[in-house]
User: Fold this.
Amino acid sequence: MATVTTSRNIGSLCRELEKLTCDLRTLSQGSRPSEQDLQACPLLDRWSFGFLPAPCLLGAISHHPIFGARPHIHTSELVLIDPDKRWARTWSKFYRLGKQVVPEIENV
Assistant:
């Protein structure tokens, strides 16, 4: 069984991505949310832009369609991983997993 890297299960992740895809298609066709639709949405007040760190994988890559082979890369956001079956799915693609490096914990 694959491990989900977030608190969501696979079914809810699929539903969220399908809704996002539908919304993006609608927006790409020139449609915008109606005032009535927006009134039903939560209000985010005193907002600003932020950065939300997302889990990803780090490692050496080979056979990447864009990067080829490089000694150090980071993937896009990690969505699913099954280390036992040696695969991971990021936002952009599947990866085969080789050896895992377990970081050493420094004595404090």
In short: The chain has a mean pLDDT of 85. Residues 3-38+54-96 form one domain. The chain has one domain: 3-38+54-96. The CA atoms of residues 62 and 69 lie 4 Å apart.
